Amino acid sequence: MKKSKYFQRKPDHPVIKVCKPNSYYASLLRDSYAGRDSEMTKTCQYLYHHFLMSEINKEIADILYNIAKVEMKHLEMLAKLILQLDGDPVFKGGEEGKSYWNASYVYYGINIYDMLRKNLASEYKALKNYEEHFLIIKDDYIKDVLKSIMEDENIHIELLNSIIKDYFR
Predict the structure, then answer these.
(1) When comparing pLDDT for 12 and 58, which is higher?
(2) Would you state the pLDDT for residue 87?
(3) Concatenated DSSP letters for 29-73?
(4) What is the pLDDT at residue 49?
(5) What is the DSSP string of 80-110?
């Protein structure tokens, strides 16, 4: 496997600010923040998979841990945006933010290959959601943040594809 110490596009993300408060944008971002397919879910999922794999394959476990740290940074960035948009970064997502986040959103998996495939699918789903938000949101500051997050998600997709290719094909 091609080793990489890079789990995000670059250490410094764009400035977290918004043009003006917008509750609709806050609700869009809240789903990526703490909905079913959210940064909160991905952070917990990567950490759980890291814990399980630590004794089985330290290299993969370390990669998943580092991806989890980047996802946690995304979580923080989205929380800051939601606050500036006059939203509440409570751990809710889904349609109109009515569903509290819960651990049933995490895919626990049955084996390493299964977990990695699900992590990859989660990255693709997140990327799709961010791309949709990017088209809807007209605030250039928020779009800069979304662009940065999308670049990180693409790096995660490359890493996961590389692991799957190197270990399972």
Answers:
(1) 58
(2) 94
(3) HHHHHHSTTSHHHHHHHHHHHHHHHTTT-HHHHHHHHHHHHHHHH
(4) 97
(5) HHHHHTT----SEESGGG-EE--GGGS---S
Domain ranges of the chain: 23-168
Structure tokens that stand for 71 in this block: 């996802």
Q: Partners of 99 in the beta sheet? A: 93
pLDDT, residue 2, reads: 45
The encoded tokens of residue 128 equal 């799709």
CB-based burial label for 111 (10 Å; 0-12, 13-18, 19+): exposed
**CATH number assigned to the domain covering 23-168:** 1.20.1260.10
Per-residue model confidence as pLDDT tens digits over 53-91: 999 999 999 999 999 999 999 999 999 999 999 999 999
Q: What residue type is 111 in one-letter code?
A: N
